[in-house]
Fold these 4 entries.
Entry 1:
Amino acid sequence: MIDATFAPAYFEAHKQRILDDYFTLVGFPTVGANPRHLGDCSKAVAWLMQFLKPLGFRTEALTPKLNDGLPVPLLFAERPGAAGAPTVLFYGHYDVQPEDPVDQWKTPPFTPTLIDGRVYARGAQDDKGQFFSFLSGMKALIEAGEELPTIKILLEGEEENGSYVIAKLLPELAPRIQASVLLVADTSAAPDDRPAIIAGMRGVQHFTVTLTGARQDLHSGVHGGLAPNPAQGMAHLLASLHRADGSIAVEHFRDGIIPPSEEELAFARESAESPEQYQRETGCPPEGGAEGVDMTMRNCFEPTIEINGVHSGYGGPGSKTVIAASAIAKISARLVPGQSPARVFEAMERHLKAHCPRGMKLTLSEVFEGLPGFRLPVRSPIFRLAADVLKEVDPRGAVFRWEGASIPVVSQLTQVTGAAPLLVGFGRESDMIHSPNESFGLDQFVRGMTWASLILPALR
């Protein structure tokens, strides 16, 4: 009989083999948004196919023809299971964020390094560590001869850049990926490290804004006071997105928002971290967003507009007295249920054009209009089953969380497959995903294996 001791014992018995495989996977620099790494993405998919085939999976690498974007391969695998059992679709992503800024890494970003029980590398957690710990738990069950449901696996290489390929392939894939349950391992535990069942996530939208002035950089003494200054103009333009109290100033941005129920809000507050915990984790107080709105609402149920990067002119040592010819900014928005991504983008575009500084040209590019946020019913049968299983992983039991982060394709997969989504992951704030020195603890890896080893038999 499989219990919570099975996966930890398997890990200890096969530790070197598991770590060798994990390190190999993480070592592929699979930055799916960068054309230079397209070959690395293909190599990672080929390696994953070789990992899955001995476990009884039929595997296939799928790449669509695109008019724009990169043909980053999608891995689909399927293993027949027990007759009459539900079908499980497992989703993850093998692409990672860029490693920049490289000079802030303490270890090489694509050379996995084990230090004090934690693996440091880009993708060590997000999402290679999370999904590979699940696959390792599944492998342990298969090697033990455990009877499992039919398992289908989708691993994409563009989650960090909009999921263009999977969106293109979904209509064609739809008949093949029908399932009863959609499992996702790309989320976090509660702040106290209790297992968390994700009952909702925000949607996401992102684009690039460019302001252009003169044909070339100009001498700031000769042209100061005459030429429009895109760097200065960008500062004014970005500042116009929010009011002085931190609330969003874009007209119609908030149209249609569906507020949380009292039950959802109570569950979310039960698992929320305190302001003091947040400051310990991040080094800053939780003072972003609108004044007067509590921390849980701002993090779980409110939309945001964030500036992800601003670039213009000279940034090196010393002084270079120029008026830059252009300035660019990377902007993202997190959306909540009820907001239409198309209408939100229209509102953003109208606002930016209306506030474009005089004498400058504004353009929007690299537009990902995005997908909406979603919330799931906390009383669903699949959540009750997950709560029972997670109590074996941690005697304290599970909590419900509504994550501020986004996995855009989850809502699409839910609609296309008819599957009940179940998002459980074991990330921590200290993992520093999307930042230099990303890491994943071996204890977290084993918890991911334990979750897989318990939930898959429970779904037979």
Entry 2:
Amino acid sequence: MKEDAIQRLTALLPKGRIMSAPAQLAAYESDGLTAFATRPLAVAVPESQDEVIQIVQFCHAEQLPFVARGSGTSLSGGSLPVKEGIVITLNRLNRIVRIDPVGRIAVVEAGVVNAHVTLAAQKFGLHFAPDPSSQSICTIGGNVAFNSGGAHCLKYGMTSNHVLGLKAVLATGEVVEFGSASREQVGPDWTGLFVGNEGLFGVALEVTLQLLPRAETFHTVLAGYDSLEKAGDAVSAVIASGLLPGALEIMDALALEAAVAAVHADYPPNSAAVLIVELEGPREVVALDRVRLEKILAESGAVEVRVAKDAAERLAIWKGRKSAFSAVGRLSPDFIVQDGVVPRRRLGEALKRIGELAGGARLRVANVFHAGDGNLHPLIMYNGKEADGLARAEALAGKILRMCIAMGGSITGEHGVGVEKRDYLPEMFTADELDCMKRVRAAFDPLGIANPGKMFPEGAPQVMTTAQHGLHPLEQAGVITRE
């Protein structure tokens, strides 16, 4: 059966673009969350939107599970393969279809790398605002699937705030187009519904992105503190002042140690934490805001404050922050990057609690977080060669997620649920809320073949009955009704 399916799948693409040899599949059995691994039945490498559509239609006809994958940077296991299913790689769908500098939009295929959008738009004085740490390699399709954020999401929001429209092939094989190039749209926000679906609806093929004018000037400040609590209090003071920085980031001592070792980042020595604050905008506005910021930081108990003198120093500051996740590999053979959210006012309390939990688990945790919106990224270090190393790390990660829920936060800020956090979903949502989510998913994927096993604890979604076919997708889901 397996061999027969692979043979028929092979007929859809030119020779060499269906991979099924063990050595070929090994590269796809994990994504950024390497604690989980599954070997797929095969990997398909389409080079056009039409080829993706044919593959999805084949999977629907064969009831064959599939997982769409870009660069595989998901940190929640969101692009983990399905056993007996196939992986559809989208990296070769990498065309920037067009840049419209007047309309300030970019139309790109799903395999375009995030940073390449800004590279193509910068000659027009424009940029694409969402900037995940992996932006030099992660793809727009993945950003759409997981509603990625980044360091500047405090001011500019998440991916969902910058996607105007998209073309996708649903798990049924139907090709749909949601939204448009216009910022003024009427009717249900299908685009907003699709963004963040974690691959459970289908595959994004082409995305219309909003571009923004590049800021006229930047004012980037690095402040060192002798405690995490003081850094957290400084964040509260900045927000309370009415300032809206482009970014507010905190790194603790372990994260700083890793960044210095990896990229030789020049951060204030012996600091328990550093706060990165970046103001951006028109020169006149930034000139006024920097005076207010200087006063706040002077009163915050910072042991050292540095201002980037030029673009090179600004990039050096951000290089250390962007490299923090991978840099922790210098300190530990294995680590888990967790992702949760707490209210800003409880940041200090949350960090203190994480330290207590880490001590109880006999593990080290480096903290890197988007302080402006309370999005925590504890990096839990462990040794996978120890018999209980991974189990202790996962248990600690679970306690941190439960802490976020108890504080009125969320189990994810931008990494998604994937396979890593699906068991915690019922602790955050009621049974009725989960049932609604499942019915919406089933409306787009009646057979449950698109990225199965993700998000929901029991894996497979509710299957639609024959009587429900032919209705509007949200009518099928029971979300809307007609009189």
Entry 3:
Amino acid sequence: MTGTENSASLLIAESVAKSFPLPAGGEQTVLEEVTLNIAQGEVVALLGRSGSGKSTLLRILAGLIQPTSGRVLMNGAPLEGPNPGVAMVFQSFALLPWLTVQENAELGLFARGVSKEISEREATIALSMVGLEGFEGAYPKELSGGMRQRVGFARAFVMKPDVLMMDEPFSALDVLTAENLRGEISDLWERGAFPAKSILIVTHNIEEAILLADRVVVLGSNPGCIRGEVKVDMPRPRDKKSPRFVALVDFIYTVMTNPRAPVGELPQAGKSRFPMLPHARYGGISGLVEIVHDRGGREDLPMLAETLRLEIDDLLPAVDASALLGFAEVSQGDVIMTAAGIEFATAGVHRSHEIFKEQLLKYVPFVSTVLQALAAKKDGRIGKGFLLDILDEHFSASEAERQFETLVDWGRYAQLFEYDADEERLYVVEDEQAG
């Protein structure tokens, strides 16, 4: 089991899975066999990329949605319905605009039937903890984004939960505000003044996870599953410039970008004929390849992300796409150019299209399916709906749309086909040129 299973265990997920129906029939598995333990007195970070099911898992643990299989235990008892032992802080603040700061902070206690006198007292204490003294009578529209999120924290604090859950609570804030609020939350925990026994935070920010957590649980994608965990063996408060901090960031980047990942991230044999395409446009791919080439053909991913001022979800799709197409390899937290990548980075415009075409045909099997379908049509045209019907067998409706968009972007750059957005049809490039 992930985590320390002992008498101090607060929250446990046992073999939790979650699936949703697909439009064309069948199911999409979002989470698969997730087993997780949250012990008293620890901060656990769930770290994963888009599509790893982080938020879905959090909502299952909170009792907001039911798992397809498996179960959740809270203080040793099976969870049925909303979890009374947790409180949540959301990314979107989720304040009621017609209530004052004080009233928003009291909301959870009011729902539990706590008296007005006690609710007011507890809310005042919580607002003081997050630095909002004097703003009790203000309305959300009068507050900055950072102040609104502080109200969100205060609303959770008054519940004095066993486990405080945070779903990317700093991602909607500007960098400086996020850094300040993150530091204040960390300080409350380190001083023993935090009004919860444990914290579970969902994030895609590696540095944030290492800064706050005792354990970082890394999730794989499609379906979401636990690949493993990293124990953050650093004293608090943590120095982001220390060699150990940098080493942990580098290690987790390696874990999250290594194509030879542990079993759990790898797709099951026969599950899909078509691997999921990373959502990166050709411009992002070529830009990344050129930058790494200009830096000597090898670049440290954390350093590259910092230089480009990109979050992991912004950088990794281009990295994944470059690796998928054979332009780069990822090893030990570094992205390394291949021979094909070097040729692509240094080629002229015409040759770069040809190289991209060669790699696309070599590594993306769905492209061959599209070309075969185009060749079978007398007019060399096929509708978007036809391809979506194929993709719907392997992906959700929204993901099928994104896969189609990526396919069109890559295929057009490779000059394999064009797309008429008005008619929603792909057509053969040669036929269009001839006509």
Entry 4:
Amino acid sequence: MNGIDKPLLLLGGQPLLAHAMARLHSQTSSLVISANGPPQRFARFALPVLADTVPGQPGPLAGILAGMLWAREVMPEITHIISLPGDTPFPPPDLVARLVAAQKASRQPVVRATSAGRRHHAVALWPIALAEQLAGALEQGMRKVGRFAEHCGVAEADFAAIPFDPFLNVNTPEDLAEAERILPFARSASL
């Protein structure tokens, strides 16, 4: 997408991130944005913007760690966080409930979403107790979210991809066009 901040791309006149936030707002006690670079570009959302605590911008795992550390400091009563890429505008309205239920049923520490036969490694429930283990893995060069989850123990919660995949990730102009096509269905769907 030519280096543009994908979460700030407009979909139906609103940033992709605004769509995701609207769907997650009622499912969580707090929302934060994990992003490096100038935080003021997200000022319109009036949320904390967390930069990586690990140097070198090692990817999504560093953002998950930043979320864990923030939650532990600011909301010590919280035991888990949810991660969702900011360019995933249609998370299901029962995402958090179903990830939590799968964690309780499986007794695995991490639960990731799946749909249409695909694993969405960055759409996951993470126990904050994994923060030190995650920091150590990042220090040793681990970068793959799925690999870290599997190392810890991971269960899956499967979501229907009909009438649309709720985990569409906007990575290309074609994906954005697909999101525009889906938007009317997403507004009316009760997944």
